[in-house]
Amino acid sequence: MVRAQKVVLAYSGGLDTSVICRWLQENYRAEVVTFTADIGQGEEVEPARAKARAMGVEEIHIEDLKETFARDYVFPMFRANALYEGEYLLGTSIARPLIARRLVEIADETGADAIAHGATGKGNDQVRFELGAYALNPDIRVIAPWREWDLSSREKLLAYCREHEIPVDFEQEDQSPYSMDANLLHISYEGGDLEDPWNAPDESIWRWTMAPEEAPDEPGIAEIGFAGGDPVALDGEAMSPASLLARLNELGGAHGVGRQDLVENRYVGMKSRGCYETPGGTILLKAHRAIESLTLDREVAYLKDELMPRYAKLIYNGYWWSPERKALQALIDESQQPVNGAVRLKLYKGSVTVLGRRSPDSLFDESMATFEDDRGAYNQNDATGFIRLNALRLRLAAKLGRKL
């Protein structure tokens, strides 16, 4: 084990990262700098300062990054309508490049020679943190304690706390049986009885959303305004990215919107089962696709849909800072220039339904689309040649007796 002089640790103040802090101090003889990010997880982050001080940490960084997270990470991703494996809204995945960036930046600011994280050796997050860090600083040293130590259970971690006088009282806390991750976009649940994909999630696990069966009998109506592909207003009120997303979480949660139960393929090769709550994101995806349906050229929309699975996989696998993701983002962002206007939606017992959409850049031409007299806006006789040309290969094959 090569000693590190100073290590920047992604620190939550929880059991795992508190043990990691002491473990780095004792095993690497390192000065530890802690970094705690508030990205809308819904818990007070300031107590992490006192916990870090009690561990002997002198340089403590606690940052409110909610607006940065929503504006520079969540919203660009939603311009692509990104869904991993057709369902997952990438709530955990999209938070990791922001944390990786700040770890590297703080290491540079403080003169640290390494960064450290609390991701395990079986999950995706270790890959996301480290790919991001190396893309931003190819010479950075990364320490991943879960791949080095033998503290493989909660009981061993608690025993380490007692042995090394780590000032935490986790044994008295009401611990959830699930591994959870929360931020402004979502909250996830893994482990416990969810490890059997046949087990239905117990109603008690959900923290943000009302059970659809118990949601109000009166639907909620929301109008989202868009500019350049990004949501900028709710019910006519201009809002910042984080404020708008937080408000949509409240609205969606109250109407049972945004629950998911998935089995997904991790990048490291195994399947995992997780349950997710993404109320605001579920609403935004529906609204964004609705405004795009009105404003995007057909072939541009098709191209975006063809590229979306690749884009989503890049984010899931940790390649946010890769040149290919940046190139795709440039194309996506270019496509969003005409994506302006408003979408009206109904939220009702777990569902999101589009009620209307309008845009100053709409490509919808009522004079052409109408079933009534189109007054010469469209010559229906033109369709004859169009159909005959497109039928040419089919007719040739039929004449040769080929079965299609």
Number of domains: 3
**What's the pLDDT, averaged over the residues?**
94
**So, the CATH homologous superfamily of the largest domain?**
HUPs
The best one-word shape is elongated
Radius of gyration: 25 Å
Under the CATH scheme, the architecture of the largest domain is 3-Layer(aba) Sandwich
Work out the strand percent: 15-25%
- Record field, number of beta strands: 14
Question: What is the N-to-C succession of helices and strands?
Answer: EHEHEHHEHEHEEEEEHEEHHHEEHHH
Distance between the termini: 65 Å
Secondary structure tally, helices: 13
Short précis:
This protein is of the alpha/beta class and 404 residues long. Helices cover 39% and strands 19% of the residues. The mean pLDDT is 94.
